[in-house]
Amino acid sequence: MGNLLKVLTREIENYPHFFLDFENAQPTEGEREIWNQISAVLQDSESILADLQAYKGAGPEIRDAIQNPNDIQLQEKAWNAVCPLVVRLKRFYEFSIRLEKALQSLLESLTCPPYTPTQHLEREQALAKEFAEILHFTLRFDELKMRNPAIQNDFSYYRRTISRNRINNMHLDIENEVNNEMANRMSLFYAEATPMLKTLSNATMHFVSENKTLPIENTTDCLSTMTSVCKVMLETPEYRSRFTSEETLMFCMRVMVGVIILYDHVHPVGAFCKTSKIDAPQDHSTDSDLSNMHSPSWQLSSLQDVQAFSCA
Questions:
Q1: Residue 214 within any structural domain of the chain
Q2: Which residue has the higher pLDDT, 109 or 300?
């Protein structure tokens, strides 16, 4: 945790200085086509989060069914409780696929020549705002998912039941909704502690590998510049005072955390090295913190520490 907090407290003289309007940025004509595509995805993000936050699971029903394997009524009760939950989990997973495509479209717009990442972010603020909203959603989704073990328990029960019925040559109606291939992909997704962040990391790395003529620095510089811009806005009273809501300050902090973590996943040698554009000191006393950078507990505590920092 030490290095992340140092990122939040370093000097900012050499950082890009401009205000990225997270509250009111509107697309220019040049941005509008991509902005509309991303907006169509993001409009579902709040309902996804609300649905995930309300997810209670079928723990009692599953427990009763497992403890009473010969009670047909309890088996049916557990199955009827799990099936609609699996449909909800499918919706979350399918949204991650839409988000992955949206991020790749944004990266293409924000990294293409002849402009630098700083120029892109300053000129195309509506797209930069959508990029920030994707990161903000991702951290909120993963935080909720990490706190809810019922998700994996429900899906594991679903898969065991499907497998058992397949052995008995039984086909259940829900398999028309969530077939074996879909179930396999969903299983890999929910096995991740931070599945949305993993999706964004994979999408970014896929973007880099597919665009071989585009230097990887264009992508990593876009991420590091976003971090720097957020930091400058938070630490410059003139910029900070232009935010009309405390929620925007928290949004900005979450975005900065998300970009640092994403940068660390994507950059060949990570965020905390001498060649990194993330301005963190090389403090060997925090090596143990850095080795845990990819752990879900580190990422969750990062958000908690940022919240504490914002109240300091």
A1: yes
A2: 109
